[in-house]
């Protein structure tokens, strides 16, 4: 087979057409998480008579609770692999990554297993979040006076 | 009710960008979330992310970019009253909710449930 022909063939069968589908799914699921978040904030504000910032915190705790629970129950891995960025970009992804690392290393013990590995996947988010916030914080503080 | 549409669009578009990066580069979800947190922190440096949260509601809060925004927001709030030391004392002041909830629920559910092989 000619090299060009082969290239054409592999291009045809590479999962190119799935990219559009993945993008649409990520958009819809991610947007749905946003709607659920907003609905929870409104629900907590109306039912609990609490301030918006308290309701927002409670909404975050709720989403994290559900993500951790669903991950531990086993079916959330499947959801995340199907929804892609739609579920790993929202806070659910952070909770999912943390819980799945903890579960994966559970059999190696409480300290050397769960303790050492719980942030194996999600640790980089905290690390680079803090580094970025520190660097930008200094820039903002020095050049703009806080 | 418009806030629901805005939440949907903002969270959807951020996830869409994440998915496009995932599908068209060699970056993994870990790279993308780390990148987005740094972008969130950068956007908050010029108070842009505050505008997002005010305008797009919870859609802007649920995205991981909000984590970077909250880190620098807490740090700068403390820095404005305590000076540079505030960057250290205030860094986790607003993200404490998310990190603490994640640690507690991840740990409890890991103890209760068995990993699926």
What's a quick, concise take on this entry?
With 146 residues, chain A is mostly helical.
List the helices and strands and how they pair.
The complex is a heterodimer of chains A (146) and B (117).
Chain A: H1 3-13, H2 17-48, H3 52-73, H4 76-83, H5 85-88, H6 91-104, H7 110-117, H8 123-144
Helix pairs in contact in A: 2-3, 3-6, 6-7
Chain B: H1 2-24, H2 29-45, H3 48-56, H4 58-62, H5 65-82, H6 86-89, H7 96-112
Helix pairs in contact in B: 2-5
Structural description of this entry:
The complex is a heterodimer of chains A (146) and B (117). Chain A has 146 residues and is mainly α. Chain A has one domain. Helix content of chain A is 83%, strand content 0%. Chain A is built from eight helices and no strands. Chain A has helices at 3-13, 17-48, 52-73, 76-83, 85-88, 91-104, 110-117, 123-144. The model of chain A has no long low-confidence stretch (mean pLDDT 91). With 117 residues, chain B is mainly α. Chain B has one domain (2-112). Chain B is built from seven helices and no strands. In chain B, α2 packs parallel to α5. The longest helix of chain B has 23 residues, at 2-24. In chain B, 53% of the residues are buried. The model of chain B has no long low-confidence stretch (mean pLDDT 94). Classes of the chains: A mainly alpha (146), B mainly alpha (117). Chains A and B meet through α2, α3, α5, α6 and α8 of A and α1, α2, α4, α5 and α7 of B.
Protein traits:
heterodimer; A: 146 residues; mainly alpha; B: 117 residues; globular
């Amino acid at each position: 087979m000619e090299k060009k022909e082969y290239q054409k063939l592999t291009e045809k069968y590479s999962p190119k057409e799935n990219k559009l589908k993945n993008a649409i799914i990520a958009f819809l699921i991610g947007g749905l998480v946003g709607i659920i978040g907003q609905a929870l904030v409104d629900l907590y504000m109306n039912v609990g008579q609490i301030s918006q910032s308290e309701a927002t915190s409670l909404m975050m705790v709720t989403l994290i609770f559900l993500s951790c629970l669903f991950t531990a129950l086993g079916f959330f891995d499947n959801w995340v692999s199907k929804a892609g960025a739609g579920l790993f970009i929202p806070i659910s992804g952070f909770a999912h990554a943390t819980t799945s690392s903890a579960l994966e290393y559970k059999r190696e013990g409480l300290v050397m297993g769960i303790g050492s590995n719980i942030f194996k996947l999600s640790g980089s988010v905290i690390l680079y979040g803090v580094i970025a916030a520190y660097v930008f914080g200094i820039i903002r503080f020095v050049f703009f006076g806080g | 009710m418009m806030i629901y549409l805005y939440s949907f669009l903002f969270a959807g578009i951020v996830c869409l960008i994440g998915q496009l990066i995932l599908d068209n580069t060699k970056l993994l979800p870990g790279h993308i979330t780390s990148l987005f947190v740094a972008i969130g922190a950068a956007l908050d440096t010029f108070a842009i992310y505050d505008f997002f949260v005010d305008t797009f509601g919870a859609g802007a809060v649920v995205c991981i970019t909000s984590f970077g925004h909250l880190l620098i927001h807490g740090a700068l709030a403390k820095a404005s009253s305590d000076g540079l030391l505030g960057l250290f004392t205030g860094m986790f002041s607003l993200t404490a909710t998310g990190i603490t909830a994640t640690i507690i629920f991840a740990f409890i559910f890991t103890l209760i449930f068995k990993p699926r092989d």
